[in-house]
Amino acid sequence: MQTVITLLTFSSAVLILSGLYFGLYPNRIGADLSRKMKNGVALNLALFVCGIGTLMLFSMQEVMAAAEVAQQTREISTGLGLALIGIGLPTGLATIGAGIAVSSVGAASLAVIAEKPEIFGRTLIYLGLAEGIAIYGLVVTILMLGKI
What we know:
Layout: H1 2-24, H2 31-64, H3 67-72, H4 78-115, H5 120-145
């Protein structure tokens, strides 16, 4: 398990360092190096995904084998399950509504800013109001979770 974590950390560090290097020195990227980098990143990403999967598999087996966890689980009844679904609905529906509102308000804001840049502050207020819908849904969910 420690070996998998070490390899994941090393692969993440290599990706970050290579990105920083080529971000600072973009003129050193040639056609041959670009192809090699793409292959290296693809290989690193594949190994990273396999490592995360392995880590999840080992962690799951370790948790499932713990006797304390099995004793602390709570029986979930149909009523509790339906209550949890009902509690999650405000956040889900509010974020969908906020996404729809932000998409239309954002497109209109960009069109107005292109013509009149001095209205930028007002358009931000409208975007904030549209995004507030999601926050209201989250607040309602948190309040309802306190009731269980």
